[in-house]
Amino acid sequence: MNTRWAIFGTGGISAKFVSGLRHAKGAKPQLVVSRSAESGRRFADAFGIPEVAEGYDSVTAASPFDVAYIATPPSEHARHAIACIEAGKAVLIEKPFASSVAEARRIADAARAQGVFCMEAMWTRFNPAARRLRDLVRDGAIGEARQAHGAFCFTNEPDAANTSFDPQRGGGALAQLGVYPISLLHWLFGAPEAVEAFGRIGDTGVEEDAAISLRFAGGVVATVNTSLRALGDNGLRIGGTHGSVAFEGPIFRPFGVRLQRMTPRRKGSGSGLGRKALLREQGLPQKLSQLHGLLTRGGKVDRQLFAGNGYHYQVEEVGRCLAAGLQESPEMTLADSIAVMETMDTVRERIGGQGK
Fold it and tell me: What are the tens digits of pLDDT across the range 245-267?
C-alpha cells in the first residue's frame, strides 16, 4: 500500500522524520503544512516535497495526503490531530501524544468516533534492539524481571524561547525526554500501580529535573531519571533473578542489547576468612580486577543495527496497519498512549506540589 504523508511542522524532528521516511517501503512525503508559507517552502525545497499548505487549519478531506505526521509543539497536538481526524486522515502524532491526559483522551475519542487510524510516534518501540530486549525479558532470559532503570538526560541552557523550556508549548523534561523511558517501561510491564516523584521546577515554569519511582502490577520496581539541565547515562536496563539486559547505545536509538547472565548466589555460613577469600582482597588481585573492568563490561552483546536513521520503522508500522484495516497499532495502542499520559500527569502533580 502506497501512502502519501503530510508533515505538520518544520522543526528539527520533522527533518529527521522525513530523512527516515525515505527508507520506508511504499511511503512518500507529499505535503508540508506550516504556519508560514516561507517556512513550509524552505522545508519542502530541502527535501524535494512537492506541495506546501500555509496554516494548520487548511486541511480538508480533499487535501492530497493519506497520513499526517504531527510534529508541532505538544500543546498543539490535540488541535492539529483532531482537525486531520475529522477530515478523515490517519495521524501519527509525535511524542508526547498530547500535553495532558485529558487531551490524549480527546484525540483517542475523535479517532474512534471517526474510525480513523491514530498512533503515537514512539519510534523506539519499533527499533530492532528494543524489540529484541522485550523478547529477551518476556522469554525469561534474565529469569524473573524485578528491577528496571531508564534515563534520558541532557544539559541545556535555559531559554524560554525554546519549546523544551516553554510551559505554554508543552515543554519540560518529562515531555521532551522522560516520555521515552516511561513509555518503554509501560510497553514492557504495563501501566504502573504506584508512582512517586521528586524534581525541580526551573525559572521558566517547567520541570527541569525529575527522579521517578514506579511499581508495576507484576512486582517490578523501576526508577526513571530525566533532566534538561544535567547529563545522564541515557540508557535502559532490566534486572532479573538470573541476569540483566540493557540497551547498547542511547535510549532513544539503541543499536544492540547486552545480556548478562548470573546464577543466583548461595551465601554460605563461612566467615570470609578462607585462603581464597583473603587472597582476593589483596592489592594485586584487586588491581587486576579493576583493569579487567575497564577493558570489558562483561556479558554478551547482541547487535541489532538499525537501517537509515531508524525513523522509518514506525512509518512501516503505520503502512502495515492501514493495509490490514486496523485503526490502532497493537504495539502502540491509544489506551497505552493515554496510560503513559496519566503517569506523566501524576509525576507533574508530585513535582509541582514541591515547589522550586
Answer: 999 999 999 999 999 998 998 77
